[in-house]
Amino acid sequence: MSRIYNFSAGPAMLPEEVLQQAREEMLDWQGSGMSVMEMSHRGKEFLSIAAQAEADLRELLAVPANYKVMFLQGGASSQFAMVPLNLLRGKSGADYINTGMWSKKAIAEGKRYCNVNVAASSEDSKFTTIPAQAQWQLKADAAYVHYTPNETIGGVEFHWVPDTGEVPLVADMSSTLFSRPVDVTKFGVIYAGAQKNIGPAGLTVVIVREDLMGESQSGTPTMFDYKTQADAESMYNTPPTYAWYLAGLVFQWLKRKGGLQAMAEINKRKADKLYATIDGSGYYRNPVDKDCRSWMNVPFTLADANLDKTFLAEAAEVGLKTLSGHRSVGGMRASIYNAMPEAGVDTLVDFMQDFARRNG
Ligand code: PMP
Q: Whose CA is nearest to atom 9 of ligand 1?
């Protein structure tokens, strides 16, 4: 068996230990005689798996008791609709911060349900920066403020949490949740598609402050109502059981690794190494302002774009795969989530330095 270093933005690498454990438990989960995939979601075996995953998630993120944690389907993209459907609560508008392609998708969907006020945008700078909060034009009567703490495509990350006072803060943390500690008390809603730092695709983690539930807009599909899902403990219908189980294994792996503070230190070190290589090369370039560069997604371009294909082919030969940039921006992108070993980043750095020497 040979495993590659997979720099995909998602679905992304999973920790090898987790995959090994899943393999060992595949045919017979803990003496039950069944695979987790074959279990009733209402049976005691799966209920214990689900409860353990939630308990571990709550411990890792220090989720306070007045927040519900849900394991849903539909991806982060469904949350673009669920947020306005549930959080408007009689108000007509919401504030959105536009820092990249994923913000724009959330804004476009939000516009189908309410008056969207784009309170700040970095589109003029081609999404290479984050507007300081002092420049935001927030509305006092906004139902919520939505932002994207990490833009997976542009590689732009907030290293601070906005202060929105009494107005609930909503965060699409798809590509940053579990990469570092986060103060959940500052948020009304946090959501994330699982396929980056959590587990396989098909699962969406949603954390909602309890008092924000129960006033969904009329006409909201039952499945899209946070209260329905919370009251049913994410089992209003059949949940994505296997993805939930694997997420649970990832949470246990995170705990064994020392939790999110330990992950933050490793993630910062990995990102620093890669940015230092880019900045010090005179050959590679990352356009993002230094104080808002992502720890998770590192886009970069080569001095000569004609060599992109050669770069990708030679990288693949040494086991470094899925490095091409998003189709909308081109160039390269290295996604270095929790499960990317530091040795993977070291191998990439060595390869990049060698490639620049040979072609610069
Ligand atoms: N938001 C962000 C920040 C993302 O990176 C992605 C997926 N790449 C999405 C939303 C969409 O997630 P999903 O495919 O789970 O709907």
A: 76
Could you tell me the distance, in angstroms and rounded to a whole number, from the CA of residue 45 to the centre of ligand 1?
Answer: 31
**Active site (annotated) includes residue 172:** yes
- Is the overall model pTM greater than 0.85, yes or no? yes
Q: CB burial class (10 A; 0-12, 13-18, 19+) of residue 337?
A: buried
CATH hierarchy code of domain 258-359: 3.90.1150.10
- CB burial string 305-316: b at 16+ within 10 A, e below: eeebeebbebbe
Q: Longest C-alpha distance within the chain, in Å?
A: 63
Q: What's the token pair of residue 65?
A: 């008791």
pLDDT-based confidence at residue 133 (cuts at 50, 70, 90): very high
Q: Annotate 77-114 with b (16+ C-beta within 10 A) or e (fewer).
A: bbbbbbbbbbbbeebebbbbbbbbbbbbebbebbeebb
Question: 150 vs 107, 109, 245, 329, 357, CA distance in Å?
Answer: 15, 19, 26, 16, 32
Q: Are 188 and 168 in contact (CB under 8 A)?
A: yes
Bridge partners (DSSP) listed for residue 178: none
- DSSP characters for 68-85? EEEEESSHHHHHHHHHHH
Kindly tell me if the per-residue pLDDT of 1 is higher than 80: no
In the set 196, 244, 253, 270, the catalytic residue is 196
pLDDT over 90, % of the chain:
98
Q: Is 102 a catalytic residue?
A: yes
Confidence check: pLDDT of 251 > 90:
yes
17-256, what's its fold? Answer: Aspartate Aminotransferase; domain 2 (3.40.640)
Q: Which helix (H) or strand (E) holds 121?
A: strand 115-121
Domain boundaries, the chain: 17-256, 258-359
Q: Residue 231 catalytic? A: no
Give the helix/strand (H/E) hosting 105: helix 101-110
Average pLDDT over residues 286-297: 98
Give yes or no on whether 17-256 and 258-359 have one common fold. no
Which residue CA neighbors atom 15 of ligand 1 most closely? 75
